[in-house]
Amino acid sequence: MSRYQWKKLVRDKIVDRVKNEGHQIDYKKLSKEELSLTLLDKLEEELTEVKTAQNKQELTEELADLQQIIDDICQVNQISLTELKSVQAKKKAKKGGFTEGFYVESVEIADPDDPWIEYFENQPDKYPKIN
């Protein structure tokens, strides 16, 4: 007999599938609060799988999983897909998408009173100051 640790959120039909195959499975049903947090962990897991996809088919499958997690996070947090798409469209209209490929290495701000300085300095892990 071999036993393997999973310790991860799985799709809704997986538990029954494993049982129907005659395997023993140790699982629990998460509370809404636990599910909300665990979905965020699952988002990271699926993102890693997107990043390591080897071809278009794998990428498509992993993006579908990632989209499912996003949809489920919305559902658990009572965010409608209409609301999400509306915010997405507004952000794209105001700031654009990401398809042009602009990658910013650094930004130098000459005016010491510029409000961006406070924004950056309040997030030093994300925007470290360089000399």
Walk me through what this model shows:
The protein has 131 residues and is mainly α. It has a domain at 14-96. The chain is 53% helix and 0% strand. It is built from 5 helices and no strands. It has helices at residues 14-20, 32-51, 56-76, 81-95, 115-121. Helix 2 (32-51) packs antiparallel against helix 3. The radius of gyration is 21 Å and the shape is elongated.
Give the H and E element order.
Answer: HHHHH
Tell how many strands the DSSP assignment holds.
Answer: 0
Query: How much helical structure, as a percent, in the residues?
Result: 40-55%
- Kindly report the average pLDDT value: 95
Structural class, from secondary structure content? mainly alpha
Strand content: under 5%
> How many angstroms separate the termini?
59 Å
**How would the global form be characterised?**
elongated
Per DSSP, the total helix count is 5
What radius of gyration results from the CA coordinates?
A: 21 Å
Largest sheet descriptor: none
Unreliable residue stretches: none
